[in-house]
Each structure stands twice: as structure tokens, then as C-alpha cells.
Amino acid sequence: MKKNILVIDANPKSSSFCGSLGTAYIASCHSGSDVHYLSLNTMQFNPDLSEGYSSEQRLEPDLVEFQAKLQWAEHIVLFIPVWWGGLPAKFKGLIDRTFLSGFAFRYQPNKTIPDKLLKGRTAEVVLTLDTPPFYYRYFQGDSVTKQLKHTILGFCGIKVVSMTYIGPIISSTTEQRAKWLKQIAKMAMK
After folding, report:
1. So what family is this one in (predicted)?
2. Which of 65, 66, 119, 127 is nearest to 95 (CA)?
3. pTM of the predicted model as reported, rounded to 2 decimal places
């Protein structure tokens, strides 16, 4: 089935396993799909929302392009490293700066729940960890999943259809990484 797919490497590092996973996903996508790739590492913007949402902050060109690609996408695939149990600061800054009222959501007078302006899109999230996934999920609280599914993507109308946990990366062998790359390639073929 043809889809507009946006693949995002949300690791700020220039070289990472998230990038390798993204490449494996793209290489295995259905040939009828239109796929765009964004690497957080190459994006230039100030991740600090200095005044919060009380005043407008001009969007840098990379942020304008990111918003355009989000609007274009029907399906979003995120490859995100978990750092200190959470999202990398630059990726969180990307969200803070672009998931804005009027773009991603809109409050209506006398309503507490906003309109979800990115409704109709789906997302697959792949988290890479140096912690064993079961330990992160069941002992550390799985805060990234909760934040992404409910208070970021879900808040804006993007339905998370799968969460994949890969790790521990730090102690993985070449063989284990090859298995993870094959797992992601299969995910792309659905």
C-alpha cells in the first residue's frame, strides 16, 4: 500500500545505531511508498523555547521544513535513543519549537481538550537503550513511551501503532545488531 512515510533519526549524534536502523527501514519500505528522511543531527535550530508559548519565536528554515514534512506524512517512523531515561534535549527542543498551537493542536473556547490538528497520521516508535528493555519498561517506568504516546503524539492526534525497544546497545555484538537491523527491515515491509 502506497504511503507518505517520514523517517526520523532523532539521535543528535552524527553517527549512531538509530541512523543505521533508519537506513534499514528505508531500504525495506514498500516500493510504492514515498519516503522522506530527516536526521536531527543535520538540523540547525535553537532548541530552547526561551519565552515558552507566551510569545512567538521565529522558526528557522529546518523547523519550517520539518513542519511541512509532518503535514505531508501519513505515517511517521521515529528512531529515538533513550538518554537518562528520557528524550535527548535536542529532540525535545524540536518538539517544543514545532508542535505549536495552530499547527499541532488548537484550543477552543470553553473546552479543556484541544482539537488534534495532526489527526489521521500513525507512528511507529523505535527506542534504543543501553539499559535492558525489560528493566527500562518495568523498573524505570518507561517514561518516554508514556510521554510520546499520550502527551505529545496522542495529544496532537498521531496514533502510535507500535513501540519497539532495542537494547542494550552498549554491550551488543555485531551479530545482535544485525538481528535488530533485520527486525526493523521486516517492520518496514508491513
Report:
1. Belongs to the NAD(P)H dehydrogenase (quinone) family.
2. 66
3. 0.95
